[in-house]
Amino acid sequence: MAMAAASGRHVVAVPYPGRGHINPMLVVCRQLAAADAGLSVTVVVTEEWHALLAAAGVSATLPDRVRLATIPNVIRSEHGRGADWVGFFEAVHAKMGEPVERLLDRLEPRPDAVVVDTYLTWGVAAGAARGIPVCSLWTMPATFFLALYHMDRWPPVDGPEGEEGQSCKSLDQYIPFPVLSSVKCSDIKILRSLAMELPMKRVAQVFSNLRKAQCVLFASVYELESGAINGIAQVLPCPIYTVGPSIPHMSLEGNSDKIRHEKYSDWLDAQPKNSVLYVSFGSHVSVPSSQLEAFAMGLHDSAVRFFWVARDKAVTTTLQQISGDKGLVVPWCDQLKVLSHPSVGGFLSHCGWNSTMEAVFAGVPVLASPVGWDQLVNARLVADEWKIGINSREQRREDGIVSRATISAAVTKLMDLADGDSLEMRRRAEELREASRSAIQEGGSSWRSLCSFARDLAEGKLNVVETSR
């Protein structure tokens, strides 16, 4: 990604303090450091996250041009935040901005630009108050961004038609708005629920603040979401750059088929090609115990081999007892490398955006089990638009649980290499795999966009005084 080096400019990156946000921000920072544009990057994290990154070996692998800086642990711990993510979101809104601003004021050299996670409600204002260009990073699908951007145009779920004569006559109906064709009325109902009132208020604030940003980055691939990305380009008053998939794909280079130095590698190596279902529900998603049990029993009934990442020790023991010799349960793994292993032929996932992008990058079909927020839209992209998987949420019972029998049937279908639907999902998954990998190669859509962003930063084209409104 070479370009003529300019005089060194200092970029400060501030991710939302969660694994699903920090990881893509770090990928973008690595790419900026590698762009040969004379950019150095300081990534701001809490003291807790600094320790977590060090323990995981991430800090030691950062390029010379990328360093970490810390703020105090003014928010609650990363551990267990899934049990009250709304409270965590509100704490980030109320408590994190002030220490970040103090850090901005004492950093040397002075920041020439700030890349902030879009969900940091105070991020744009912090940069604007100091005359620093602000670039907003959206770490979820462009489709979900556009849905939230247009939430004032959402049709009523109940009651009379909206101003444009649109309404949700059925919760199973897709929103009658062309660029939101992957969002259903049932998704809107969840986002409009009383429990979501405060988060949606903050999101409205976020999108209002975006009008003062100098640009927006998307951790997506143009070829995967061209309709949504084109729609965003028409409504935002600033440049946009698609730089995804913002996943740690660099670790696969030259070692895509073998996982070294891990205890589980021998087990994976011993399984037939495409025979293993990888199971993971992310770093903090809270899945009810009754649903976890249904997943485990359904997998047992399907007789499909599976590799399950379960971080809770008690859960790990229970799952291993249920799985017997058909499955392996571990507390952690390198997810992208496992998905890229030849023995892995499917992914049972909560459909967080990073996990979804890693499945696409590995060319693995998905059995989606979304819990909430953008996962609902991600699962619809997977099953309905991209057609690389099955959305199990569509088959929930009245109590909200997907049954043991339903899971067994879905797993069997997804992993049956003789089934016509499964073969078609695999063909489509392979197409998207090639598209996502081509995007980051020299000349690809994401490569060109990232180069353009790095160049614009280095040459000062995104400076506040040069941005018209």
TrEMBL record:
It is an enzyme of class 2 (transferase). It comes from the Eukaryota. InterPro entries: UDP_glucos_trans, UDP_glycos_trans_CS. Coiled coil: none annotated. One of its GO terms (molecular function) is glycosyltransferase activity. It holds the Pfam family UDPGT. CDD domains: GT1_Gtf-like. Keywords: Glycosyltransferase, Transferase. Its EC number is 2.4.1.-. Signal peptide: none annotated. Transmembrane segments: none annotated. Belongs to the UDP-glycosyltransferase family. PANTHER family: GLUCOSYL/GLUCURONOSYL TRANSFERASES, GLYCOSYLTRANSFERASE. This is Glycosyltransferase. It comes from Urochloa decumbens.
